[in-house]
Automatic annotation (TrEMBL):
The chain crosses the membrane at residues 18-38, 59-81, 93-115, 127-145, 165-194. Residues 298-338 form the UBA domain. Keywords: Membrane, Transmembrane, Transmembrane helix. PROSITE patterns: UBA. PANTHER family: RHOMBOID-RELATED PROTEIN, UBIQUITIN-ASSOCIATED DOMAIN-CONTAINING PROTEIN 2. This is UBA domain-containing protein. The lineage of its organism: Eukaryota, Metazoa, Ecdysozoa, Arthropoda, Hexapoda. The keyword Secreted does not apply. The keyword Membrane applies. It holds the Pfam family UBA. It comes from the Eukaryota. It is found in: Membrane. It comes from Orchesella dallaii.
Amino acid sequence: MLSQQSTTGFYKAPVCKGLLGCMFLTCTAIHVPMIAHLRQYLACQIPQVIISGQIWRLLFSRLTFIHTKDLICSALVIYYFRIFERRMGSRKFSSYLLGTCTIATILEICTVMLLSQFDIDYHNGGYLPPGLYGLIFPLYVNYFLDIPRIAVSSFIGVPLTGKTVTYLLGLQVASTSQATIISSLCGLVAGIIYRKNIFKVQRWLVVPRFIAKSFDKLFGWLLNSSEPKYKQMGATLELQRQEQTDILEQQYYYNRTQEFRQQRGQGYSERLVDDGVNADGILGYFLRQRQRPTENLEPSQENIQILVDMGFEHARAVEALRSSSNDLETATSILLRQ
């Protein structure tokens, strides 16, 4: 998840960066002995806070997690879910968090009060578990529906995908107690309600534009991140990993062509070197070569053997050479793009 090549930091994700900073600063503050007394402000007992008018405790209880393991798992999840902020834009993403967190909190309060009517106490006297459940778990709805499932491995017959670790992190955060399970489920329901725009929540739970601009002017210098040097940036982690794999593959095939230089003299590998020693130059050369006209020729055994030595299957090599009229460069390009 934190690979240097497959991630791009918090570029175009200042809200997620601010959430992580707030979480770590608040968690550190409540564990420092000198100011550990601030932990009491995270306590939010239902319905006493409503009766006493201390609604601010609802906000404070959403600031951070008490347990360090929940903090770390949630930080990784938020770091990954920054892809949604890039897709939506910071203002729309903030509106999404505002709407889902508000709905999730209302659902939690209603659930606690409903359970109390049946003398069921999962919350130790009505205390809501502190944490960002109403911010994190609604995003799992979008994550499940919008991010493609790509199998990368299997374990005892169970397929593992690039999304498995993210789900396991969310399960770890949700399974701390019975109260956290309820909070997590309320967050999921809130995500469904907001996505389906039930009761037109997307219209009335919106961050005003002037507030967004004010926050950008006040904290933009602190939260904005510079554009990464790695230019290719997929919309999902799976695409970013694929881009990294493509670059490594291109570099590998370039190294293979270098080995053929001694065998083929000034053949196609020499022309690749003239185009540049980086992967972009090689790929550009392949794409340009695909445009040139070729004659209708049958694949030669020499070209088939070269492609097989490069790691391609014999049948695919023959098919690619036949499609390119025995042009080795075009056939290599076809196989790479497949």
